[in-house]
């Protein structure tokens, strides 16, 4: 029978607790991925795993490099780009469809992550789609179509790659004062 | 030259839990099961496709992996950022219902993606991301 000395045993216990805590954070992150379109907020997420909102935010950031609020908003913007690309929904409709209750917050965060406001993104996607259609019979126009859609062309890529490249770049930290979701 | 993709490995941290998931939830057949305790190597795969297997393996078993690296691997598994695989099925809804009926953690309900696929995602018991794409 193996006998661990006291300090080894303590270290093993600390590590087991750490893994359990990380698994809890994983469940929070997965819930954001699953339910981002719901009116989620950090308080509700924290309550679900018996943590305070502040503790959850700190732990989540330590594990994943950004706050749960930032992760949630990025997930929403990512989905918003997909819906805007479809072209059949207005910016306001898309904003609500991805779980944002405030058009202002949505537009600000969208612009930060994508590099242009959602309305401009939607127009550019529509132009790119038109250009691709027009190019169908004119090989010369293909280059133009490619330029027009350069930021957002994902057709033909393997799905997993398209998901990676179309994910908004996290180029800013979450807003420090954004404790609740709009 | 003919090459097939024969076996791909996913880590486990509780061999019995992972075995139950792949066998009972996904319906895979068990092709071999060697080792004991946490050091078990379990080969599973879809019935009727003997040429393609998933090996459920203990993480960090390579003796060249340091203690620090092993700890990082187990932490990434717990965080859900380590192993992942992409499966496909013609009937995504049926498979999703089956997985959801168990106590597996759902990451994404069946969703139409902008890049032209419909897929869903969930976790296996070790925290690996299992993404499933609809064949159409």
TrEMBL record, chain B:
Q: Which CDD domains match?
A: VOC_like
The name of this protein is: VOC family protein
What SUPFAM superfamilies does the record tag this protein with? Glyoxalase/Bleomycin resistance protein/Dihydroxybiphenyl dioxygenase (SSF54593)
Q: Which InterPro entries match?
A: Glyas_Bleomycin-R_OHBP_Dase, Glyas_Fos-R_dOase_dom, VOC_core
| Record-annotated VOC domain positions | 4-135
């Amino acid at each position: 029978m193996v006998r661990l000395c006291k300090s080894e045993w303590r270290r093993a216990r600390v590590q087991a607790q750490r893994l359990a805590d990380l698994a809890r954070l994983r469940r929070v992150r997965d819930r954001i991925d699953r339910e981002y379109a719901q009116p989620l907020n950090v308080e509700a997420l924290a309550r679900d795993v018996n943590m305070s909102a502040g503790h959850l935010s700190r732990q989540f950031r330590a594990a994943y490099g950004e706050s749960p609020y930032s992760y949630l908003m990025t997930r929403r913007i990512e989905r918003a780009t997909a819906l805007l690309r479809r072209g059949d929904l207005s910016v306001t409709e898309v904003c609500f469809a991805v779980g944002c209750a405030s058009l202002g917050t949505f537009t600000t965060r969208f612009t930060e992550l994508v590099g242009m406001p959602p309305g401009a993104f939607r127009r550019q996607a529509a132009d790119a789609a038109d250009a691709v259609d027009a190019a169908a019979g004119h090989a010369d126009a293909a280059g133009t179509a490619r330029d027009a859609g350069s930021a957002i062309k994902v057709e033909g890529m393997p799905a997993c790659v398209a998901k990676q490249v179309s994910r908004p770049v996290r180029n800013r930290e979450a807003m420090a004062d954004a404790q609740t979701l709009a | 030259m003919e090459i097939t993709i024969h076996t791909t490995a996913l880590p486990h941290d509780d061999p019995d839990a992972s075995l139950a998931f792949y066998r009972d939830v996904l319906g895979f057949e068990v092709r071999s099961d060697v080792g004991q305790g946490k050091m078990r190597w379990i080969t599973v795969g879809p019935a009727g496709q003997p040429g393609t297997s998933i090996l459920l393996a203990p993480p960090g078993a390579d003796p060249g992996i340091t203690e620090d690296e092993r700890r990082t691997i187990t932490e990434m598994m717990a965080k859900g950022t380590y192993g992942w695989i992409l499966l496909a099925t013609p009937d995504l809804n049926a498979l999703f219902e089956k997985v959801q009926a168990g106590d597996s953690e759902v990451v994404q309900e069946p969703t139409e993606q902008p890049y032209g696929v419909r897929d869903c995602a969930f976790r296996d018991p070790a925290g690996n991301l299992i993404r499933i794409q609809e064949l159409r």
